[in-house]
């Protein structure tokens, strides 16, 4: 069972983010996800926000040093927390 995933300092492409988003939606054991310094763009962030809104297990999300706009962060917080 995967409980923690650290992808910090790894560039995530759109395809990589799409795959990660699909996995997040279906995962029922992941509680910690570190996406700090992954150079997410708005399209990738949107995919992840949609996935996070459907994940009930994730309790810790690190997106520090990401250039995410306020709207994306707000949507994420409203949908999950």
- Counting DSSP E segments of at least 2 residues, the number of strands comes to 3
Ends distance: 24 Å
Radius of gyration from CA coordinates: 11 Å
Biggest sheet descriptor: 3 strands, parallel
User: What is the general shape?
Assistant: globular
CATH class: Alpha Beta
Helix content: 40-55%
H/E element order: EHEHEH
Question: CATH homologous superfamily name?
Answer: Ribonuclease Inhibitor
Strand order, sheet with most strands: 1-2-3
Write a structural description.
The protein is of the alpha/beta class and 81 residues long. It has a single domain (4-80), classed as Leucine-rich repeat, LRR (right-handed beta-alpha superhelix) (Alpha-Beta Horseshoe). It has 3 helices and 3 strands. The protein has helices at 14-26, 42-52, 70-80; strands at residues 4-6, 32-34, 60-62. The chain has a 3-stranded parallel beta sheet with strand order 1-2-3, with no helix packed on it. Helix 1 (14-26) links the parallel strand 1 and strand 2 (32-34). Helix 1 packs parallel to helix 2 and helix 2 runs parallel beside helix 3 (70-80). The N and C termini lie far apart (24 Å). The mean pLDDT is 82.
